[in-house]
Design goal:
The protein is mainly α and 85 residues long. The chain contains 6 helices and no strands.
Length: 85
């Protein structure tokens, strides 16, 4: 019983630790939006005045690299709020 409890506790901790070290949502965008792969974050700020406009622009993008994030609207909204602030 003790061994099972320790194993379950260890698995729970290993599952929770990565979520605690999450960077800001906009930080995940900065990897590509650095000016060489995608438009720089400053260019996004000037092109899209509101977070909603930025989310709409991201969702309507035809770039295949955006397909991975287009389905996660909550993450897009959080990143857009960080970028536009």
């Amino acid at each position: 019983m003790k061994k099972t409890l320790i194993t379950i506790t260890a698995l729970a901790l290993l599952t929770l630790i990565p979520s605690l070290s999450n960077a800001g949502d906009a930080d995940t965008c900065k990897g590509c939006h650095n000016g060489s792969v995608g438009p720089a974050v400053d260019a996004l700020k000037t092109k899209f005045k509101t977070a909603d406009a930025l989310v709409a622009g991201a969702k309507s993008s035809q770039n295949p690299m955006m397909k991975a994030v287009q389905g996660d609207e909550a993450k897009l909204k959080a990143a857009a709020a960080e970028i536009v602030k």
